Amino acid sequence: MIALAGTALAFVLSLPLGFLAASNVSPPWISHPVKWLLGFTRSIPLIVVAMLFVAAVGLGPFPGMLAIAFHSIGMLGKFYAEEFETAEPGILNAVSGTGATWSQTLRYGLWPQSIPQVVAFTVYRLEMNFRDAAVLGLVGAGGVGYYILLYVRGFQYEKVAVLLAVIIAVVLLLDNLTFWVRRWVR
User: What CATH number does the domain containing 137 carry?
Assistant: First the structure.
């Protein structure tokens, strides 16, 4: 749930940041600072972000979700911006040539070209966030990592093995989900 909620929040926030960071749809005085902001959020290791959120809001899954979202915003925003920058300029010019506004050009010219990769990047990031969420429990940010740490400290390695098997199974399921979603979106 931490990975899912964090990825959903990151998607909602990084999509507009991706549009703003794309140099083909935003002026340089907007795209460059947004790219720097996305780079800043990516540069801080996830475990440090998690510790900061635990200190700010307390123990539990909420700081884990915030840490996942914070770190994912930088990655997804960068991926989205790069995908938007590779959009076919002829299509964008054709849409804007019909008298479309900036937002209509994005909606009807840029977005349809980018949907498959945006979905693929988002599901891929969900897969990464699931693995990362397992680690966040080690710093008090909730999740399955808390139980792994608890069972390791209690020398209950058979339970640790079961949790690791569940993590592996979910990651493999998400990997297959990525494949099917990309096929469905195209």
Answer: 1.10.3720.10
